[in-house]
Write a structure and sequence with these properties.
The complex is a heterodimer of chains A (216) and B (255).
Chain A lengths: L1 H39 L4 H16 L2 H11 L12 H26 L3 H9 L4 H31 L11 H12 L3 H28 L4
Helix pairs in contact in A: 1-2, 1-4, 1-7, 1-8, 2-4, 3-4, 4-6, 5-6, 6-8, 7-8
Chain B lengths: L6 E10 L2 E11 L4 E5 L6 H8 L7 E6 L2 E6 L5 E3 L2 H8 L2 E4 L11 H11 L5 H14 L15 H13 L5 E5 L7 H16 L3 E5 L3 H7 L2 E6 L2 E7 H6 L4 H10 L1
Parallel strand pairs in B: 3-9, 3-10, 7-8, 8-9
Antiparallel strand pairs in B: 1-2, 1-4, 4-5, 5-6, 10-11
Classes of the chains: A mainly alpha (216), B alpha/beta (255).
Chain lengths: 216, 255
């Protein structure tokens, strides 16, 4: 027990890094994903195709590869090439990657709304942006909560990929102690930490689902 | 005609792919008239109604609402719609009630009614709530003001939909088979509300299968078949002595 208390400070520090990557990614990738979804369903074929290609690229290659590319290869790309420090590079990869997944969730949600809702709004004089903001998107939120919950929980665990940029997240902190002390206990403690984080998320999403169930 | 028509539709043509659904439909609707549009399914009656409020576009013809041109066709046969802002303003003179209600499920009854006046007309909540409550009393659903649509029966939903349309103060109301999705015992309450509107001289175009309603409430009956208006006469005459053989056959099946 004393040993567990001893290793808590470095593991908590790692959890801090994990939570930062998690929170910043979520806050940035959800609006970006929504924007991508709206562009993807737009009637301008060129825009829609471009977004489609972007989503294919982001979902079709490993997140780890994208992170390595942004950190190591992006500086050498002509014109747009910039050298990012490790943390911003990791965030950028996560946001670009997760926005693609969120875009598809939003798109599925928007397409699941009955055409009658658009017509009902249209004959009342709503413009398309008003229809989206006031009528469609509020209903979309409720429908996409289950897949969003899934994706968010995946994100918690995906944050451990940042170890490739030598950042001290929860898992890397645990592995460091394992190698130093020849004990596997830090892995168990780290697992408990991940479980607690996903438990909080699961609970939060259940609360949201209950809240939105009032109009069923 | 001395009085300006509320709706003037001239020679409307529309096709879905190769299928012609409107083959030159013309109709004038005067102020305070209640027009019942009847006919077999696939006759183009719903499409005709949807074209009037721009839920569908036509391929040829002219539509004027209270003297303003929604769409016209030039000598070369090309259709010209008004600019978007004008379309929205012109169609704003009309309200529409759908077969499947199309209430907003995430909003309460009252919110359903005040949403459009607030968002579209920019009215304040305080301005519109008294009107909305009066409308709810009118359709007999004031006690349901804070309930979500999922808790209502079909007939109640449709009455909320009518109140929602009225909240935008339209000059004309279009009804697209308003009772077709209802259990028979629930159609009465909706028809009663519509009858009250007719008595207040609301201009209405009603696509319906309710022959009793058409006979008792409509001022004129339009019988459509195969994308054409086959017969168009005052309601009493229409039901007493239908002229066209196609009309007679249809009525014999319905009554």
């Amino acid at each position: 027990m004393n040993y567990v208390l001893d290793i808590l400070p470095p593991l908590l520090e790692g959890t801090g890094v994990t939570l930062q990557v998690f929170a910043i990614t979520l806050v940035l990738s959800i609006p970006l994903g929504l924007a991508l979804a709206l562009l993807r369903i737009s009637r301008f074929g060129f825009v829609s195709g471009l977004v489609n290609g972007y989503i294919w690229l982001m979902r079709g290659t490993p997140l780890m590869l994208q992170m390595l590319f942004i950190y190591f290869a992006l500086p050498f790309v002509p014109v747009i090439g910039i050298r990012l420090p490790d943390f911003p590079a990791a965030i950028m990869a996560f946001v670009l990657n997760y926005a693609a997944y969120f875009a598809e969730i939003f798109r599925a949600g928007i397409l699941s709304i009955d055409r009658g809702q658009y017509e009902g709004a249209r004959v009342l004089g709503f413009t398309y942006p008003q229809t989206m903001r006031r009528i469609v998107l509020p209903q979309v939120i409720k429908r996409i909560l289950p897949p969003m919950s899934n994706e968010t929980i995946t994100l918690v665990k995906d944050t451990s990929l940042i170890y490739v940029l030598a950042m001290n997240d929860l898992l890397r902190a645990a592995r460091g102690i394992v190698q130093r002390d020849f004990s596997t206990t830090p892995f168990v403690v780290a697992a408990a930490f991940y479980l607690i984080m996903t438990l909080v998320l699961t609970y939060g999403f259940q609360r949201l689902e209950k809240k939105y169930a009032v109009y069923d | 005609m001395t009085e300006q028509a509320m709706i003037r539709a001239v020679d409307l043509h529309k096709h879905f792919g190769p299928v012609e659904v409107l083959k030159g439909v013309s109709l004038d609707v005067n102020k305070g008239e209640v027009i019942a549009v009847i006919g077999p399914s696939g006759s183009g009656k719903s499409t005709f109604l949807r074209c009037l409020i721009h839920l569908e576009t036509i391929h040829r013809g002219t539509i004027e609402i209270e003297g303003e041109t929604l769409v016209s066709t030039d000598a070369g046969g090309h259709c010209h719609y008004a600019p978007d802002a004008d379309i929205r303003r012109i169609c704003g003179k009309m309200g529409m009630v759908f077969q499947h209600f199309n209430l907003f499920p995430h909003l309460t009854v009252l919110q359903n009614i005040i949403e459009a006046p607030m968002t579209v007309k920019g009215m304040s909540r305080d301005e519109i709530v008294p009107t909305a409550e009066a409308l709810l009393k009118k359709v007999g659903l004031f006690d349901k003001r804070d309930v979500f649509p999922s808790r209502l029966s079909g007939g109640q939903k449709q009455r909320v939909a009518i109140a929602r349309a009225l909240a935008m103060a339209p000059d004309i109301l279009l009804f697209d088979e308003p009772t077709s999705a209802l259990d028979p015992e629930l159609t009465g309450e909706v028809l009663r509300t519509m009858r009250e509107l007719a008595e207040e001289h609301m201009t209405m175009v009603v696509v319906t299968h309710e022959m009793a309603f058409a006979r008792e409430v409509a001022s004129r009956v339009i019988f459509m078949d195969g994308g054409n208006i086959v017969e168009e006469r005052p309601a009493q005459e229409f039901f007493a002595a239908p002229e066209h053989p196609r009309t007679r056959a249809f009525l014999e099946n319905m009554l």
